[in-house]
């Protein structure tokens, strides 16, 4: 049985104690910040973490799993086994929801895949592995892709809100999958980035990789090749920085510096 949060009104202030937790401990606490009714930031704690939160605000509304606090919000957060810290803002939502065993397993599997994805390829910075090592890494990649497909079929794209830091593994697995798999899941990653649930640099890499493979000019300038290095052709290059900015990436000139290159934007 889940114990739901309580609200106690004290004068003009609302004091909130967040304490939702499933009997098996599978719950997840989230803190979300809003501006003009839109989410602008947040924090996601690990599934099962015993996170303690107490908060005060001018106004508070709650349902079975969350509290919406507005006006001079001040909250103290105590992570599982960690030191407490203070949050403050004007429009904050605190939530603690029970997580199914299936979802918890999916997140644990994503975390495990993050390690196996780099089991062999991570041993050589330049990617030089023996044929046997590549054979074993390829077998791992195939198994990871199969499990990721099962997770996506069950839950959709496992973004930040679903898996926290482990969401990065979904991109890594797709990045190392065959091109058909990359093309299949690219629209899901696009949608996740639009709703702030995935990283823009991951989208740029996957979008450009698929386009280059298909013989099309890239959109974000993430793909380089050759000796000396040079960018693959870029579609509408005069607006590449505008596209990069739209998904949270720095100008292409800054990206080029990472490879020791000088890039002059097209005007």
UniProtKB/TrEMBL annotation:
<dbReference type="InterPro" id="IPR046732">
    <property type="entry name" value="DUF6624"/>
</dbReference>
<dbReference type="Pfam" id="PF20329">
    <property type="entry name" value="DUF6624"/>
</dbReference>
<protein>
    <submittedName>
        <fullName>Uncharacterized protein</fullName>
    </submittedName>
</protein>
<keyword id="KW-0732">Signal</keyword>
<feature type="signal peptide">
    <location>
        <begin position="1"/>
        <end position="22"/>
    </location>
</feature>
């Amino acid at each position: 049985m889940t114990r739901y949060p309580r609200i106690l009104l004290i004068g003009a202030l609302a004091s909130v104690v967040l304490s939702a937790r499933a009997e098996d401990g599978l719950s997840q606490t989230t803190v979300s910040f809003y501006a003009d009714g839109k989410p602008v930031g947040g924090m996601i704690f690990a599934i099962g973490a015993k996170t303690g939160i107490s908060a005060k605000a001018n106004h508070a509304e709650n349902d079975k799993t969350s509290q919406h606090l507005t006006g001079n919000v001040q909250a103290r957060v105590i992570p599982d086994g960690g030191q407490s810290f203070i949050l403050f803002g004007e429009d904050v939502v605190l939530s603690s929801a029970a997580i199914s065993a299936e979802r918890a397993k999916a997140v644990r599997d994503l975390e495990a895949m993050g390690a196996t994805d780099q089991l062999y390829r991570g041993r050589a910075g330049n990617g030089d592995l023996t044929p046997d090592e590549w054979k074993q890494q390829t077998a791992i990649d195939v198994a990871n892709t199969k499990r990721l497909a099962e997770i996506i079929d069950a839950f959709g794209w496992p973004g930040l809100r679903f898996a926290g830091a482990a969401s990065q593994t979904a991109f890594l697995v797709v990045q190392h999958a065959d091109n058909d798999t990359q093309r299949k899941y690219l629209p899901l990653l696009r949608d996740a980035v639009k709703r702030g649930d995935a990283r823009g640099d991951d989208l740029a890499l996957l979008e450009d990789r698929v386009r280059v493979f298909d013989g099309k000019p890239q959109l974000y300038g993430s793909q380089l090749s050759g000796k000396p290095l040079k960018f693959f052709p870029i579609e509408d290059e005069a607006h590449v920085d505008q596209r990069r900015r739209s998904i949270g990436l720095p100008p292409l000139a800054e990206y080029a510096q990472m490879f020791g290159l000088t890039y002059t934007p097209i005007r």
